[in-house]
Each structure stands twice: as C-alpha cells, then as structure tokens.
Amino acid sequence: MKQDPICKKEIEEDTSFQKEYDGQTYYFCSSECLKTFNEMKKSVIRLKRSLDEKKRVSFGKLNKDVIKPGICTLCGACAASCESIAIEDKRPKIVGPCTSCGVCYNQCPRTMTTEEELVGKLRFAYSAKSLLDRHEGQDGGVVTALLAYGLEEGLIDCAVVTTQSKDQPWKPVAIIAEDRAQVLESSGSMYSHSMTMEQLMQAIQQGMRSIAFVGPSCNIDAVHKMQRSPYGFLHLFMRANVLRLGLFCMDTFSYEGIREFVENHGMRLADIEAMKIRKGKFEFEQAGQISRFSLSEFDEYRSSSCKFCTDMAAENSDISFGGVGTPDGYTTVLARSSIGYEIFNEAVENGFLEARPLEDYEMDRVLNLARMKKVQMYSVNRRSKKT
Ligand SMILES: Cc1cc2nc3c(=O)[nH]c(=O)nc-3n(C[C@H](O)[C@H](O)[C@H](O)COP(=O)(O)OP(=O)(O)OC[C@H]3O[C@@H](n4cnc5c(N)ncnc54)[C@H](O)[C@@H]3O)c2cc1C
Ligand code: SF4
Ligand code: SF4
Ligand code: SF4
C-alpha cells in the first residue's frame, strides 16, 4: 500500500493516478490530488527561478551561517520549501540533492539578505571625494568637505567632531568646531571611543540651532534616541536641528591598548602620521613607511561593546560614510534622509565634492561587511580576516 502525499489516504499501487518526480513514483487517490501535486511543484519551481544569480547559494551556507552557529529556531521553513531538507535530530539536514538554488537560505528567518536588512534605508549610494585645496581625509575627506560647505553656507552653526588630544597623540577628543580650520584639523579617523555626546549637549546649551554631529553608529543611535525619547533630553533636542553624519564602524580599541601595542613594536604614537584599518589589517604610517598587523592581534584591546554591535553602516544617520566599497582615496556615501541627500548634492553642485553613483560590485562589498557585523554576535570568533 502507498500513501497519497496530498490527502494522506492509503491507496493501491495499480492506480492510474501516478507521477514520476525526481526519480520517484508518487501515487494519488484521484485526479484532484494529482492536479494539486502538479500545481504545487510548478509553483516551487517558479519561486526558485525567480532568484537572481547573487542569491543562489547552497544548503552549505545555511548550515554555516545559521545551523552551525546555533541560531536556527527550528521553524522548519527550509524543510517545508525543499524536499532535500529534513529536520532530523533537532536540526535541519540535507537528505537529497542540492541544486544551490538559494531558496532555503533566502527565506530562512535568521538570514539577512536584502540591502535594507543589512545597511538600513537609503536613497542613493555614492563614491565621493573632497575637492578642497590641499585636503586629505581618512578616505576621500568627504565628511570634512561637507562640514566646510555647511559652515560656509550657514546651513550649520557648528559641528561636533573629534580631534587628537594636544597632550596625548591619537587620543580622541570631541570638540565643537565653528570654522573651516577647526573641521580641517579634525579630518581623519581615530580608532578609540570619543565622548561626542557631552559636546553636543554643550553646543545646544550654548544656543546653537543647527548642529552637524559626526560619530560611529553607536553615537548616532544615542542622538537618535535623545531626539525621540520622552524620558530624557527631548526638551533640549527640540531647541536644535541635528544633522547626523554617521561613520561606518566595525570596532574600536582602547587608547591605552593601541599605545601599548605600538610601543611593543618599537614605535611611538607621537611619530605615527596615519592609522587605517583595511582588509583585516591595522596599518600605521610612520615616515612614509607603513607597518601592517593582523587585526586579530588587537583582540584583547577591542571594546567589549563592539563585539555585540550589529550596525556597521550607521543606519540611523542622515548620511553615512565609510572606506569599504570604493577605491583608496574615495569615501562610500549612503545618503539616507531627504535633508542628508539635499545637503550632499548641494555640496557637489557647489564644487566642494565630486561624486558618482556607487557601482553594484562596490555596494556588494559594503553589504558583505555589514553582513559580517550583523552575524558577529553569533560568531565573534569566526570573523574573516580578509574583509
Ligand atoms: C572608530 C572608527 C571605526 C571605523 N571603522 C570603519 C570600518 O570598519 N569600515 C569602513 O569602511 N569605515 C570605517 N570607519 C570610517 C572611516 O574610517 C572614515 O571615517 C569614513 O570613511 C569617512 O572618511 P572621510 O575621509 O570622508 O572622513 P574625514 O573627512 O577624514 O572625516 C572624518 C571625521 O570622523 C571624525 N572622527 C574621527 N575619529 C572619530 C571617532 N573616534 N569618533 C567619532 N568621530 C570621529 C572626525 O571628527 C571627522 O569629522 C571607521 C571610523 C571610525 C572613527
Ligand atoms: S528556516 Fe532557518 S531557522 Fe527555520 S529551521 Fe531552517 S535553518 Fe532553522
Ligand atoms: S536545493 Fe534545497 S537545500 Fe539546496 S539550496 Fe535549494 S532549497 Fe536549499
Ligand atoms: S562597533 Fe558599534 S559599538 Fe563599537 S564603536 Fe563601532 S558603532 Fe560603536
């Protein structure tokens, strides 16, 4: 006796309602059940074909990103959508051929696959560069050039930025910059936490009405929350407009840790001209020479909060900026809010910046890094050293 896979009735094998599928014969009690089976298969095939090339991955990726790290909820959606997957011993297992169609990975509730899930809402993505005379920033100097434009046009009264301490080289100190010289001086990145919020509060208390605020995702989140939360400083934030300029961010390290590391390697922070993190390496430039170290060597100095942070792209900002994606000497820009989009494009039209649309393959690099940040909570020790 066989079972009709649709209505589950027991039936004899000599029924004329039969169907060969994937090397197996299925038996049905009636033409209705056979019809349902045929239609069901066709709809699954249509779904699989609708995925584009980039989304086609194998079950192996679902295993690596979800099942092995232990974040599978056993919802069974993967098994429900593919007969090559079965839930066995309390985990999804591959029990048949995998065509790498990508359906199981893309519909699993634990994966992040869309642009919005990975980097938040945005209007437009650019690769851009400062056109200010003799100005180089951390990447394309775009943050600084935009601030210079905002100040010059009277769009902002001041900017909360971060510069180096006068006494301790490379120690971040947040300041309220009110002119071009001060924003130019604050160009470049320091890879330790900066206490930006105190300066923002001071600027509001000093009566500044339009303030640009620069900081990584967690600092942007603090501003975003204060602008909305009825429990704290909402009344203060009602006095000022704050333009949130977010920096992409994967990690920060303790200042003392960076100093110790540098000194242990025969250098002095006072002699370091530039610091950069790229492609899994921490780079220190001294007298034109670049020393590169694997980021894993800095694990002990990494701020503990960064291990649990999942927002690489400063999703709550008006515009966000990063080095990943575009070529050296350029900044990736994600224009998010209408005010962010307007100001950025005005700065381009007025000759402060040059910009072009970000190419798809460049955006893919941004999305890959963002994905790494999103999943790191589950796999802190598995961070790839390549990106
Ligand atoms: C801690 C940190 C980690 C980062 N990690 C990544 C990363 O993993 N991937 C990536 O693509 N990009 C990362 N970035 C962003 C990148 O380094 C550049 O800041 C960004 O590309 C803008 O470059 P720019 O040349 O346009 O900016 P610039 O014109 O050089 O201006 C940089 C601005 O950043 C501000 N700033 C510098 N250090 C700090 C700080 N510690 N806290 C708050 N504000 C600061 C300065 O005040 C200045 O206004 C990180 C930045 C920081 C500060
Ligand atoms: S769809 Fe994802 S969460 Fe659901 S059972 Fe499959 S692997 Fe687990
Ligand atoms: S064939 Fe099945 S297991 Fe393989 S990717 Fe597609 S849905 Fe996943
Ligand atoms: S990784 Fe997250 S928590 Fe750490 S500094 Fe960057 S934005 Fe803040």
Protein described:
Strand 1 (2-3) and strand 2 form a beta hairpin. The longest helix has 19 residues, at 31-49. The chain folds into 3 domains: 1-50, no CATH class; 51-111, Alpha-Beta Plaits (2-Layer Sandwich); 124-252 and 303-382, Aspartate Aminotransferase, domain 2, CATH 3.40.640. An 8-stranded mixed sheet has the order 9-8-10-11-15-16-7-17, with helices on both faces. It is elongated and about 90 Å long. The chain has helices at residues 31-49, 59-67, 77-81, 103-107, 115-119, 142-152, 180-185, 196-205, 217-228, 234-237, 255-264, 338-349, 360-375; strands at residues 2-3, 10-11, 18-21, 24-27, 85-88, 91-94, 124-130, 158-164, 172-177, 210-216, 241-247, 274-278, 281-286, 289-294, 319-322, 331-335, 353-357. The termini are far apart. Mean pLDDT is 90; it is low at 380-387. It is an alpha+beta fold and 387 residues long. The protein binds flavin-adenine dinucleotide (FAD) and iron/sulfur cluster (SF4) (3 copies). One iron/sulfur cluster binds next to helix 4.
What attributes characterize this protein structure?
eight-stranded mixed β-sheet, 3 domains, binds iron/sulfur cluster, 387 residues, binds flavin-adenine dinucleotide, Alpha-Beta Plaits, alpha+beta, three-stranded antiparallel β-sheet, Aspartate Aminotransferase, domain 2, single chain, disordered C terminus
Topology:
Elements: E1 2-3, E2 10-11, E3 18-21, E4 24-27, H1 31-49, H2 59-67, H3 77-81, E5 85-88, E6 91-94, H4 103-107, H5 115-119, E7 124-130, H6 142-152, E8 158-164, E9 172-177, H7 180-185, H8 196-205, E10 210-216, H9 217-228, H10 234-237, E11 241-247, H11 255-264, E12 274-278, E13 281-286, E14 289-294, E15 319-322, E16 331-335, H12 338-349, E17 353-357, H13 360-375
Parallel strand pairs: 8-10, 10-11, 11-15
Antiparallel strand pairs: 1-2, 3-4, 5-6, 7-16, 7-17, 8-9, 12-13, 13-14, 15-16
Bound molecules: flavin-adenine dinucleotide (FAD) and iron/sulfur cluster (3 copies).
Flavin-adenine dinucleotide binds next to helix 6, strand 8, strand 10 and strand 15.
